[in-house]
Amino acid sequence: MSGSTAAHAGPVMTMLATASDGAVVEIPAGSYREQLSFARPVTLVAAEGPGSVTIRLEKPCAVRADTELRGLTIEGAGLMAGGAVRLKLSDCVVRGASSTGVGLRDEARLTAQRSHITSVNGNGLFLGGNATARLIGCELGETAFSAVHLAGKADLELEDCVVASSREHGVRATEESSLRIDGGSVRESGLSGISAETTGRVALSGCTVHKTERAGILVGAGTTARIDRCRIEEAGGSALVVWTGGTAKARGVVVAGAGKNGVFFADDSHGEFEDGEIFGTAFPAVHVGERADPVLRSLKIHHVDQDLDIADSAKPRLSEVQVSDVAVSTLPPPGKDGNEDAEPESTLDELIAQLNNLIGLDSVKRDVTAMINVMRLARRRIEIGLPPPPTNRHLVFAGNPGTGKTTVARLYGKILHAIGMIEHGHLVETDRGSLVGEYVGHTAPKTTAVFRKALGGVLFIDEAYSLVPLGGGNDFGQEAVATLVKLMEDHRDEVVVIVAGYPGEMHRFIDSNPGLASRFTRTLMFDDYSSGQLAEIVRNQVVEHRYELGPGTEDAIIRFFASMRREAGFGNGRSARQLFQVLTERHAQRTAALAEPTTEDLVVLLPQDVPLPFADPEPAAGAEAQAPAPQPAPEVSQAPTTLA
């Protein structure tokens, strides 16, 4: 059976030389130095169980006939099978090989159970040609090259195996090879955990990929991979990478920490990521490259700096994407970029009616109506081939808090969409905290991410003056403003930007940058609500919550608002909503004292439910008069309530 002469045969080869074909040869416990090869079918068994026999090979063992090894430890060199042989390993260890641990080519077939291939200076397991292998409960690792490498049309199944500590890839499939991994883990790889760069079949299920230097799982160009119920932890690069031309269909995948993106869809890639979870990534949870068209469905993203990074020409389809504890959210609103949960759209006439039905804001309504007429005209001129009149859609909303600025901004975007001036008409609300970073190089990406979320709609920046605080200095807000100015120029026809805040502060903001002054040429003034208008807001709240105002109650409400000081920070609509809450609380305390309250008692708000008007005492010498907190009605005992 040996390829060497009898003079050079070791004890094991001597036993094999006298064995018949297909014999079971039991090897006594011990350590043997051999030049071993198999040319006839045989089974070698460690007589006293796994680990009792060590065979130190002087060169790789050639397997040229069906061979089964049980409980043996092979050291110094590996096992090389070719032709159409069958090699079976049970409870074996192959370690310390100077090149490949176990190699198969041609039509060779390997079945291994509870065996280890470790500490080798090449691949742990190499399959080429049409070789096939099935490993169950095995361990492979501590390899100088990839722990597992597939080439040609090789086919490998790993069930509940552990692949660990490879200097290159954990498992790599190339050319036309096929790979199935069910359960088990791949960890501590110098490159990718699993690298599928093949046109063959790739199916991964229930496995964990942990602590790789680069990608957790790489789906290469031309590769289609199914990935079910896998977990990718602490990848040094992106957890799941789908390269250009690749397709990944992932379901129930969890990404827990990554040095880069959680999922990276490269340019022109495809796939699905469904019922998954991503958290703890250093880069955006999901990157979608140019022209990539993945489906993201039932996805949970949390505890990341940014949720999505979507290229301009990407076409992702989004559905039921949930985001929480995210510093910068660029999740498109319902109906944008394939999100299937779109809210019903209103007609232009319905939107204009909603604008006109807002309480107060007469000058704002006139200005918006005038702009709508100009834009409708511009649209019609474009449709018949005429140049449009000059328009500037970006606006400054100047006014105190609670004057309806956000409500008007939302309607304005929807109206522009109904006219056809912008693609989606959604509103993205933001402020300094979402635009300005905490360290050098952080602000521009944050600002760009928020801006991109608003493409096709309205970017509403509340308290915009806070981007240029008094004193200036090295504040990063100036970088956010410069980034905004450039983005507004680059996407002049794709977005509307509205900046809002106190009138005086907004003048300072616009004057802080020449680019702002040229882009914001129109200011809409949001005046404070009158006492009667504030009372009307309260009345709307009363109707919405199915209460009623008793005789004299509305007059008491008007008197209350008339007595309020209109100082800086006056709450307007917020004050009206707060008063309604106080009304219901005082009404509840009053009716609680009734033994058997009637339906009318439970519904009607009476004048005594309205706090007393603010007093206006004479100011002390050298001091300004301050408005005291409203006092409760004499017949109701409760703590004073502050509405300002």
From TrEMBL:
Residues 391-530 form the AAA+ ATPase domain. Residues 614-644 are annotated as: Disordered. GO terms for molecular function: ATP binding; ATP hydrolysis activity. Pfam families: AAA (PF00004), AAA_lid_6 (PF17866), Beta_helix (PF13229). The keyword ATP-binding applies. Keywords: ATP-binding, Nucleotide-binding. InterPro entries: AAA+_ATPase, AAA_lid_6, ATPase_AAA_core, Beta_helix, CbxX/CfxQ, CbxX/CfxQ_RuBisCO_ESX, P-loop_NTPase, PbH1. Belongs to the CbxX/CfxQ family. This is Right-handed parallel beta-helix repeat-containing protein. It comes from Actinospica acidithermotolerans.
